[in-house]
Design brief:
Elements lengths: L9 H18 L17 H6 L4 E6 L7 H10 L2 E4 L5 H4 L9 H12 L3 E9 L5 H4 L3 H18 L6 E6 L22 H12 L4 E6 L8 H16 L5 E4 L2 E2 L9 H9 L4 E9 L4 H12 L4 E6 L25 H12 L26 E9 L3 E9 L4 E6 L5 E6 L2 E4 L5 E5 L6 E7 L9 E7 L1
Helix pairs in contact: 7-8, 11-12
The structure holds ligand 9MR.
Ligand 9MR binds next to loops.
Amino acid sequence: MANSSRAPGRSRRLRAALVVSAAVGLLATAGAVVLPGSASAASTLGASAAESGRYFGTAVAVSRLNDSAYTTILNREFNQVTAENEMKIDALQPNQGQFNYGNADRLVQHARSQGMLVRGHTLAWHSQQPGWMQNMSGTTLRNAMLNHVTQVATHFRGQIEWWDVVNEAFADGGSGARRDSNLQRTGNDWIEAAFRAARQADPNADLCYNDYNIDNWNDAKTQAVYRMVQDFKSRGVPIDCVGLQSHFTGGSNYPSNYRTTLSSFAALGVDVHITELDIRNAPSDAYRNVVNDCLAVARCKGITVWGIRDSDSWRSSENPLLFNGSGQKKPAYDAVLTALNNGTPPTGNPTTPPPTGNPTTPPPSGGCTATVTPGQVWGDRYNTSVTVSGASTWSVVVAITPPQRISTTWSGSPTWDSSGNVMTMRSNGSGNTFGFTTMMNGNSSARPQIRSCTAG
Ligand code: 9MR
């Protein structure tokens, strides 16, 4: 399939599956009644996320599907699953040419019977390679990797919504370099080769690059992955999404610029997914922030937590999940559900490009008129000034398009809405013209929109 064009019906399939899943969630919850069009009041994570067209999922260990306490929570709360280990290379191809799909198929069947979407994890990775692959190098390894991608994506064709095609290919620390691995040593183009093979084998799956420690926008690793995605988009390498694992465990904290990271990747024209979320000691604030950040970015498609109960976690001593070992909801669960229920669905069509061209001046509304004059433009930012007529005291509402961000203002008193994207500027006695600087953050075309001008 040519470059990254999306197969028709892909997003329709997601939407239909989420509707089914939301209904399953509602039916399964006695007493939960959500009237069409009423304020959000869903009582499960999946149903609540589905109200904004998103999913809320979990990693599943297939062996635990025999534990009824586990499956009760899984089936009630979640509308998306990722195999925690059963779709890794060593699990699916333990001996070269011998594929073992039993456990993975069992999870896919379970998910389909419950109306859950499946994330495939992962086709190409330096870790969890079977012994025969670990010992390979060069063209032999490259071909074996591509064959694995092709065979596995073909086997699951039509059943996987998103593939983590390549996992964790960048180095930690400040280098911004690729991680050294036997795959990397086959040539820098191994990642794009994997993506092209996956697209050919399953044209309907969305193809993601997935990594950890790419949550902080200022980190060299985040910037390096950003540049790779930007490069892939510019050259037509078929990539649809970026997965931020978001393990805020083991010493890595939720960064306050997480929303900037999500929206910056999204501005490249890819969806973003929070794929392996867990947070040390499960603080409600951090969980709430992650949900709100996702809800604020139209292309953030959903959140997957890396396990159901603390006792299921790969870092169980940190108690990082939403349910305790007895399967009871923790305070972080309530914080997440409330945030999902309070969330405003993104408006507009996320595939519509941001407004371009000159800033607009709306007709007079609240007794004054705000006229925009574009100011100086630099490579990374630009200035705007606004002159108010018809009133000597006033407030003007200005909206900017994320990931753009207003960084500086002058000659007025600004306040901000919770998203940080809408500024209300009030006169402060310094005249009828105010101004501000907007950081482009990768989007050089959008310009501020004046929403209203109100006298007094
Ligand atoms: O949670 C997974 C654990 O059970 C496995 O032993 C481990 C090695 O395969 O992988 C864990 O999941 C990892 C995921 O596949 C990729 N991102 C980091 C996750 C936590 O280590």
